[in-house]
Amino acid sequence: MTDYARLRDQMVDRQIARRGIRDPRVLAAMRTVPRECFVREGLKEAAYEDCALPIEQEQTISQPYIVAAMLEAAEIGPDARVLEVGAGSGYAAALLGQLAGRVFAIERHEALGRLAEERLAALGYANVEIRVGDGTKGLPPEAPFDAILVAAGAPAVPEALREQLKVSGHLIIPVGGPGRQRLCQITRENADRYTERDLGAVVFVPLIGEQGWRED
Ligand code: SAM
Q: Is the pTM of this model over 0.85?
């Protein structure tokens, strides 16, 4: 077993399973995806610490525990069609690639999108597609989705994302001010009715776009 594989197992045991994540498919995916491939060269040694790390364009790769909690709350089946808003490094998109049938991940920074695409291709994730654009509008040509995960904090839930969710699907999104948000699980109960569950306090970079925060 390589040092990174050992660190990955320790991360899952100590920081994820021990803190209450139970879904065996999520735990298996976290044991499989090499997080060290999604962080900057000088930060690989820190890849399995339970914290967000800086990536290019002043963005972050999210904390592993929070990513695992979002994946578990999204209840993703093997044939699911999933949208991620905020692809960043591509790490969560790779985890989604392990769990779902088809994954679309949108990133607003072209440079990040291209890097994520290269990493995912190098690791062989043929079921994950990176798109560059404003994810607050969703991805209408590929909708509807069984699950939508938003990896940036929104001032309110974008209407476009609600509309692109399948009935029984979950939208996982941090909602609140720039410094602190509540992680919400929104479930589409039927064509017009949605229910909401609060999953706790989180801190994400802002979701910037037409149905998010303004750039300035
Ligand atoms: N999921 C990522 C990972 O695994 O590395 C972490 C994402 S980082 C916390 C949030 C990302 O959301 C940033 O890369 C940021 O550029 C992106 N973002 C913010 N607003 C966006 C929008 N409207 N559409 C697409 N991406 C957006």
A: yes
Give 3-56 pLDDT, tens digit per residue: 999 999 999 999 999 999 999 999 999 999 999 999 999 999 999 999 999 999
How far is the C-alpha of 107 from the C-alpha of 145, rounded, in Å?
A: 17
Reply yes or no on whether 62 is catalytic: yes
Domain tally for the chain?
A: 1
What CATH number did the domain enclosing 16 receive? 3.40.50.150
What are the counts of helices (DSSP H) followed by strands (DSSP E) for the chain? 6, 9
* Residue 116 belongs to some domain of the structure: yes
Residue of 60, 62, 63, 89 marked catalytic: 62
First to last CA, the chain: 47
Query: Does any domain span residue 96?
Result: yes
Residue-wise pLDDT for 149-158, tens only, equals: 999 999 999 9
Atom of ligand 1 lying closest to residue 212 CA: 23
215 part of a folded domain = no
